[in-house]
Amino acid sequence: MSHHQVLIVGGGTAGITVAAMLQNQPEPPQVSLIEPSDTHYYQPIWTLVGGGVFDKSISARPMADYIPGGVNWIRSAVSQFDPDNNLVHTSDGATHTYDALVVAAGIQLNWHAIPGLKESVGKAGSGVCSNYAFETVDSTFHNLKALKKGNAVFTYPNTPIKCGGAPLKITLLASDYWRRRNLLGQVKVNYYAAMGVIFAVKKYADSLNRAADRYGIERRYMQELVEIKPDQQQALFKHLETGDISTVPYDMLHVTPPMGAPDFIKNSPLAGDGGWVPVDMYTTQHTRYPNIFSLGDCSNLPTSKTGAAIRKQAPVTTHNLLAYLNNQPLSHRYDGYTSCPLVTGYGSLIMAEFDYNKIPQETFPFDQSQERYSMYALKAYGLPQMYWHGMLKGREF
After folding, report:
1. Which residue in 340, 349, 352, 392 is the catalytic one?
2. Which of 11, 39, 333, 365 could lock onto 282 through a cystine, CB 3.0 to 4.6 A?
3. Is residue 102 over pLDDT 90?
4. Cβ(257)–Cβ(154) under 8 Å?
5. Are 43 and 83 a contacting pair, CB within 8 Å?
6. Known active-site residue 340
């Protein structure tokens, strides 16, 4: 059994950022981080990888390069939480105690939840692809290039997902790919989404609908993918209001898989409704265990699950965690800020930024609902550098 002043679960965006911010303090606490993976991925670039702009290798870097100096890296996985006794058990048989715990374990992709998906996604000749995993993201561009005519179907599941705009981004980017090759007449693009609108913030939704109209994208809402029949190249969708099942033929099927809280959280005493870690939406402190904080995708913070949201959550979590350790009031507050860089084509992007109330909270002195090359360049070239050299180094901006 080993004791840690601060124990962080998860070496993704949220875990590394908080660990780095803690280490940057004048008198840093003793920090340990549990993470089994040897590789850290910059996942926001996967939309452009799926569109053939970049090779997927640029998204992967050694985890060891980004564990902050001074942080003890526990290269294992959590097997069990015992928050009543301040214990965490890991898969290597070790037991860890803590003064404070930060749960930043990300989100789980539930490929198995749709019959026919796991065995077909990313497989050559299946037509089924997804930008949502390093192993499958390059299959998207392979399918884009191969499709000269037929039915292209893009899905959005009936669960919370990381980067809520990503299913639409690849739909628009793929459409631009076929438009530039004069194939849009032969390729019919279909967007099947379980939600009821194209985007939750009207200012950006209006611009996105204009972009979709430009490409002739057929949008069908309240539609949940419930089964794939790979041998017949058919996708079955359930209408969430009527319960009707429709069978849709596809030549290419881009699937955003259902997602949920990681099983080891969902099945633990930490979990709340839906398996997510329940926290105060402003302080990120656990609603039942005051020495536990959670942020990022595994928390129940009612905002989009994006790296941009974590950029604003991490300083709040860090400051409030330090306040807790020093028996001070939790004074820092998170307002729900998130950002979604909505790619609308090669060289064009809408930079959506908004808060808990879906009120735009824009950074730049122009109308960000308009498609711009400058915002596309920021996503493709600027934001990755800010991520690797800013966020993961614990810099606030």
Report:
1. 340
2. 333
3. yes
4. no
5. no
6. yes
